[in-house]
User: Fold this.
Amino acid sequence: MSQSNKLERHGRLMKTMAGLNGADIAIATQVGLLTSEEVVQATIACSACTGVAACEQQLAAGEGGLPEFCQNDGMIRRLAQEMAEFGLSDS
Assistant:
């Protein structure tokens, strides 16, 4: 898999995991809760994960909650909290 494909794959995984946990990456970026550089860094961190199969299974099942191995746990939790505080999510 090319590096570009790997980053695209992990970007999708990260955005889906965030969404299942109350954090919309696109909206967070649009309103300034997250910079585009932070999205890039989070995607790179996600691409270093060794739990991809377990992550994909959780996402396929539509299960919320963050796996303990998630490289972006802190960012996703922070965004979900901030988005809820600003009325930008259902959480």
Notes: Residues 3-20 form the longest helix (18 residues).
